[in-house]
Amino acid sequence: MDINSSYLQNFDLMNDGALTHSTHRSKQKQLEAAQDFEAVFIQSSLKAMRPKMEGGLFNDGLAVDVFYQFMDDAIAKDISRSKNNFGIADALMKQNF
User: Fold this and answer.
1) In the chain, what are the helix, strand and coil shares in percent, each to the nearest 5?
2) Among 4, 50, 68, 77, which is least packed by CB within 10 angstroms?
3) Burial group, residue 88, by CB count within 10 angstroms (0-12, 13-18, 19+)
């Protein structure tokens, strides 16, 4: 079986392009994972900073807890994906995990 060299060159060019695209997609997934990790850290920090109030009109109950959890999650994701983030995701990406 004779394999012609032009076929192999075209195959290698296609693979290089596919690897480049795959590598870019992999880096993007790593960045998203690092940002998600940073968001979890920020969310737990926001939860810890919120004073625990007891009693009152709107300070008790499962609905309020769920509301604060969703609010903390949204704020944390916005912060982790903004330009002025905490820098945890950037540090993780520099480590090339």
Assistant:
1) 75, 0, 25
2) 4
3) middle
Neighbouring C-alpha atoms within 13 Å toward the C-beta of 25: 6
pLDDT for position 12: 45
Coil, helix or strand for 5?
A: helix
Residue carrying structure tokens 């075209």: 10
Averaged pLDDT score across all residues of the chain: 78
Statement: residue 10 has pLDDT above 50: no
Tokens of 88: 């945890």
Number of other CB atoms surrounding residue 32 within 10 Å: 13
Residue 70: enclosing H or E segment and its boundaries?
Answer: helix 62-80
pLDDT in tens, 64-92: 888 889 999 999 999 999 988 889 998 98
- And the tokens for 44? 């737990």
